[in-house]
């Protein structure tokens, strides 16, 4: 069933406020950094609920340790990004890390500290120093979101609109003029000339993911339909060690467990990554591919920390201990069964350093945005950092951009009432997983295209799936998290496009359909 936006659609005035879409770290931070200037914050669930932010375990990377420096953190970020980071974005975001930690602490986040009050720091894969600031042991996201939600609710300049899902951006005269959202009482139109998309990741597009099931890239679909450029969409990061169990999302066994010395073994007890450079602490894509290949060869894979001297697992990892207990696993007595799962999207809405997209009046931050910080592969714990830092950058930019008067003539837009990615998940998992190749990507594009065009419940998810698949088809090389079995190496001799619009994607799909028929 679709709903038509017409003159009868209920309108809700938010005055001159910008509308921030998303109640995770990026949206909360943007709203708080705007204060005391008025903003409206729209979230489809209650604030902080159904966010990847609240699920984060390891913590936030920031160069705050005595043996660390922003230069070292920058070098590690650039190395993980496999030649595709934007060095200017990396420099600015990483150097803002320590100030972001201070800001979060001012907002009430209780980070873990030693007896002298110094921040305790963890180590994660591909970081050359201990620099992961954490809270509640491995419950960092929960504590950050708790404190920020409390602060947002107590900030009078922030108008809260909870329980409505944004469906479309209305564009008039080439610029943002409003947002159409759906709630329990039907569609609501919010006239505004300034919109921030902070809707998180795309894990919900796949069968095995660690994001909340509702994170299937709806913000990206909205931006693409409004004409904004997206970038780096093919770079989807698979976390190597999700708890191998049923249900969605899969629970995460944080990299911090490997940071403490846990190793990967198979059912024979063999440490199959021992000879890989970096071993278990190699970059995520390397570890995820090693596990995936081993599983394809018929093995089961486990994470084993039983040998780590002095590790009080339950005290260091209380949340992981609890989620393992839920699956009947006691990590102090047995290894934890693990498998790779979709975890993080490096690509997103293409933005500049102010968080501005290519569409006038549209900003993006957090996982929904592509700033260039992560390049082809995210360094662990740089995403909470990016969400916190870029939320403040977007707020500064919004403050410098006065509201425009919008007429919002009633456009004729058909929008599905329900969004359901379930038809898309098996297609994406088959074709756009840890390892890709032309034939299955083409088959996926052919299956997704009609789902996009029929404007049903799967259409927004299918649209982002199709854009990811199109970007993966175009990139005929392997780089970072994008691995093609038919093009297994970097190809620095060819320039593959990094930006993509919806119009380009649909044109490519039509051409592909013609080729396949011919
Ligand atoms: C299990 C797990 C562990 C992680 N651990 C770490 C870690 O230790 N360190 C680290 O740096 N990163 C970690 N990450 C990644 C990090 O948590 C995310 O990248 C980051 O929290 C994203 O924040 P965000 O605000 O952009 O999105 P989210 O926190 O996902 O918030 C998105 C918000 O948008 C709302 N929304 C979505 N669509 C709509 C719509 N159409 N209309 C209205 N609202 C909408 C959602 O309801 C939600 O409120 C982890 C991720 C997962 C899943």
What would you note in describing this structure?
The longest helix is centred in the C-terminal third of the chain and has 18 residues, at 382-399. The mean pLDDT is 94. The protein is α/β, with parallel strands linked by helices and 518 residues long. The chain has 16 helices and 22 strands. The protein has helices at residues 25-34, 52-55, 70-80, 87-95, 97-106, 140-153, 218-225, 255-259, 284-296, 313-316, 318-326, 382-399, 424-431, 438-453, 459-474, 502-517, and strands at residues 2-5, 10-11, 19-21, 39-43, 60-61, 121-122, 132-133, 158-162, 165-172, 175-183, 186-191, 195-197, 230-231, 236-243, 263-266, 301-304, 336-345, 348-350, 362-364, 369-370, 413-416, 499-500. The strands form 6 sheets. It has a 5-stranded parallel β-sheet with strand order 8-4-3-12-19, sandwiched between helices. The protein has a 4-stranded mixed β-sheet with strand order 2-11-10-9. The chain is globular. Flavin-adenine dinucleotide is lined by residues 21-27, 42-45, 50-53, 55-60, 140-141, 165-166, 198-200, 210-211, 215, 218-219, 252, 344, 366-368, 381-384, 387. The site of flavin-adenine dinucleotide has 43 residues, from α1, β4, α2, α6 and β9.
Overview features:
globular, alpha/beta, binds flavin-adenine dinucleotide, 16 helices, 5-stranded parallel β-sheet
Please outline the helices and strands.
Elements: E1 2-5, E2 10-11, E3 19-21, H1 25-34, E4 39-43, H2 52-55, E5 60-61, H3 70-80, H4 87-95, H5 97-106, E6 121-122, E7 132-133, H6 140-153, E8 158-162, E9 165-172, E10 175-183, E11 186-191, E12 195-197, H7 218-225, E13 230-231, E14 236-243, H8 255-259, E15 263-266, H9 284-296, E16 301-304, H10 313-316, H11 318-326, E17 336-345, E18 348-350, E19 362-364, E20 369-370, H12 382-399, E21 413-416, H13 424-431, H14 438-453, H15 459-474, E22 499-500, H16 502-517
The structure holds flavin-adenine dinucleotide.
The site of flavin-adenine dinucleotide (FAD) has 43 residues, from α1, β4, α2, α6 and β9.
């Amino acid at each position: 069933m679709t709903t038509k936006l017409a003159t009868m659609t209920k309108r809700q005035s938010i005055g001159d406020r910008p509308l921030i879409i998303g109640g995770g770290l990026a949206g909360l931070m943007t709203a708080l950094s705007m204060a005391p200037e008025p903003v409206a914050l729209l979230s489809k669930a209650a604030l902080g609920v159904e966010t990847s932010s609240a699920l984060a375990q390891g913590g936030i990377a920031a160069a705050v340790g005595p043996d660390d420096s922003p230069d070292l953190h920058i070098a590690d970020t650039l190395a993980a990004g496999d030649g595709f980071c934007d060095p200017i974005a990396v420099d600015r975001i990483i150097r803002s890390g320590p100030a972001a930690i201070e800001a979060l602490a001012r907002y009430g986040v209780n980070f873990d500290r030693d007896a002298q009050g110094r921040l305790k720091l963890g180590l994660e894969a591909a970081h050359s120093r201990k620099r992961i600031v954490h809270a509640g042991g491995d419950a960092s996201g929960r504590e950050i979101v708790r404190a920020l939600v409390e602060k947002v609710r107590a900030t009078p300049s922030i108008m809260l609109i909870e329980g409505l899902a944004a469906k479309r951006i209305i564009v008039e005269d080439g610029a943002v003029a409003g947002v159409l959202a759906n709630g329990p009482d039907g569609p609501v139109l919010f006239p505004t000339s300034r919109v921030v998309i902070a809707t998180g990741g795309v894990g919900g597009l796949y069968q095995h993911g660690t994001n909340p099931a509702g994170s299937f890239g709806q913000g990206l679909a909205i931006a693409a339909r409004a004409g904004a450029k997206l970038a780096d969409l093919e770079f989807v990061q698979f976390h190597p060690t999700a708890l191998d169990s049923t249900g969605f999302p899969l629970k995460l066994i944080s990299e911090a467990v490997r940071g403490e010395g846990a190793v990967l073994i198979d059912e024979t007890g063999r440490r199959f990554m021992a000879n890989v450079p970096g071993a278990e602490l190699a970059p995520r894509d390397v570890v995820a591919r090693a596990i995936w290949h081993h599983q394809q060869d018929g093995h089961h894979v486990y994470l084993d920390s039983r040998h780590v001297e002095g590790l009080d697992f339950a005290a260091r990892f209380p949340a992981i201990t609890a989620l393992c207990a839920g699956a009947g696993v006691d990590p102090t007595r047995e290894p934890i069964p693990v498998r790779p799962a979709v975890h993080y999207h490096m690509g997103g809405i293409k933005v500049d350093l102010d968080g501005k997209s290519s569409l006038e009046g549209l900003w993006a931050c957090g996982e929904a945005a592509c700033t260039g910080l992560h390049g082809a592969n995210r360094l662990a714990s740089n995403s909470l950092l990016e969400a916190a830092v870029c939320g403040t950058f977007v707020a500064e930019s919004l403050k410098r951009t006065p509201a425009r008067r919008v007429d919002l003539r009633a456009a004729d837009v058909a929008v599905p009432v329900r969004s359901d990615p379930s038809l898309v998940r098996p297609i994406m998992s088959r074709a756009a997983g840890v390892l890709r190749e032309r034939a299955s990507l083409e088959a996926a594009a052919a299956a997704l295209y009609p789902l996009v065009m029929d404007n049903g419940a799967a259409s927004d998810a299918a649209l982002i799936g199709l854009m990811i698949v199109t970007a993966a088809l175009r990139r005929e090389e392997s780089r970072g998290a994008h691995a093609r079995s038919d093009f297994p190496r970097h190809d620095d001799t060819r320039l593959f496009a990094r930006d993509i619009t919806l119009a380009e994607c649909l044109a490519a799909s039509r051409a592909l359909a013609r080729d396949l028929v011919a």
